[in-house]
Amino acid sequence: MSDEDDGLLLNFSVSDNVAPKRSVSKVVGGKWKDRRKLQLRLQGRGRRNKDAGAATGVNKSAIKDNKVKVTNESSNGSTSGGVKDNTTAPLRHDEPSSKRFKFAESRGATGGKGDSYVSSLFTSNDAARQLVPTKEATGTSHEASNAPIDTNSFSGLGLNDKLVTHLTDHLRFKNPTKVQQLVIPNMISYERDLFIKAQTGSGKTLSFLLPIIHKLMLEQKNKINRDSGLFAIILTPTRELATQIYGVLETLVRCYHHIVPGIVIGGEKKKSEKARIRKGVNILVATPGRLADHMENTTSLDTSQLRWLILDEGDKLVELGFEETITKITDQISRSSKVMDKMYQWPGLPTKRVNLLCSATVQNNVQKLGSIILNNPQMITVDSKDTTTIPDDSMDNIQTAPDQLTQNIVVIPPKLRLVTLSAMLKNITNDIHEKSTNTRTIVFFSCSDSVDYHFDVYTREGKRLKKIKNEETGKTEVVESNTEEDSEDTTGEMTAPLVGDSTVVFKLHGGLSQPVRTATLSSFMKSKANHSILFCTDVAARGLDMPNISTVIEYDPPFTINDHLHRIGRSARVGKEGSATLFLLPGIEEGYVEGKLNVVHPKKGSLRIVPYEEILKKGFAQAEETPQPEKKTKVDPKKKEGKWDIYATTWHLDVERWLLEDSGMHDKAVRAFTSHIRAYATHLSSERIYFNVKTLHLGHLAKSFGLRETPKKLGKSVGGDESVAPKRKKEDSKSKMLRMAKMAVKSSSSEFNY
Hints:
The chain has about 750 residues and is an alpha/beta fold.
């Protein structure tokens, strides 16, 4: 230390690599608000955004017109100005998500000026949070749990030889199923009430029809004919199921023409039904409401000789609120059967009435119905050949799906539901063309309005089909109809070129008239198209035996787990393979798999999680780009081969434009969306932990109906007219007080007005 030093030491170190001074950003020009927003962004105090315009937080036009500039002042005073605007570069779904892929859409469709942007399908979507896609598994197929058994034959069950020959030679039934092996001997040998619990598609209908026909055929002393009386009543919850059972009865009694079946269902003319009853029927298939009506008003309906009362799909009967009607029917039958002298006229028949309750599920509500009609019943299940009396606590048993059924779960963001359904239907159609087979697909929706809307969407470029009789051959043929007078054809059958060639679509729901429902169901089951698709509600979920149903799609989730079992039960029937697909939304709906589906699909490998990207890519992928290693050419970024997400978005934009051009279809889409939300809110309280209407993103869900805004905003007129409904004048306090006083006086005066 020198003498001149003042003794102050500075503690600092000098590095060889001196860091450059931080550049100072300066914002000049434009409005104060734009300058302030840009300055906050540059300081890192702003919000992270997905494009350059949003990254600055400034209006793009302000940057483009050089109203706002950013200059970086370095230590030597040099400046670098300008912010590059790269917001218009279209990016694909599989490129980095930090940039947003938008489709320019002219405001001409909405009546405005200039250009606007329509929200993309592949942005702002929630991903699956709980479920992980299942890897392709090998060797996970299971043996059929509802297939016919080869160990016994129908003759070994004690059935009439003539009936057995008719079954095996003409109707092609070779061996009985498990439930038939258990029920038929019991009904033939004993006179006791039965509770039959079996999977859908296991052959319950034949299990109770064959013993009844067998008993009536054996009565040789006094041959039974239509004048002998009514011996059996079969109650079903739906008209379609009643019509199907009646059709099975007609085929069975062809071997013994003296037995006459009949049917009475809602929607048909009562006058013709009364005429049938007056002529005489031996076995009557009915729905509860119409049967109760005839028992009160049709004097020719005599139930004094009734020997069998069968309730099919008991859980659905309870769900539809038929307990009171069934109680009324059973009381009427009991009063009429007190004429005991007629009971001994037919010694080969049961001496007392035998009651049967059939159901695929067993719950407390079914137990309540069983207590109304069953007396000390015997439980018969397909799980075991042990048939014991029902204990009090056995009603908690849960039915499972057929083992050979493959259940797929697809977790789809709400905006992508419509295009995913389109891709899935296209994939099924393409697979059918490759295999050259005819198959059928059922798509379940939650409400009738949704069925009508989606039917119009997928058939909008198709042609209606009608049936005509060929005068030369005498056969009925299906041809295309181009005339307006045939637009309301009873079958409701239309081609769907948007899905595939030789593809037809049908619709079925409770809002249609009974003749239309019957004709549609018959046409769907007899359709010769390569791919036949049925859009329907749960009216087609119970008991219907439709052939060649390869796939069941639950576009809207079921209201209960029992509805799920009956929906998927239309496929994988009588030992055949089948598949089902359930659409779920990301979030709390994913818990439905662990909470409910794992219980009814216990077999390992039968439940699969499928990514929706695979379905979309397969359905919308066009000709892939062929690699040419010899010639190195630049790939045109505007070329669309293989860009499946662009094709999917284009398909969806076509639907949106179609709705904007057609006000009638636009209104139908609004009704479908509104009805869907209302139906979604009707889930049971026990399942509302998975399906809560408050968690839905209504804007994204409206997108799946082709709506660009939710119906609340769609109340404004679509087009150039921006006028809205006039605002209501605010009520002053004095008027409000007088109005409330008048309401109070009115309510008090009407208290005793009964």
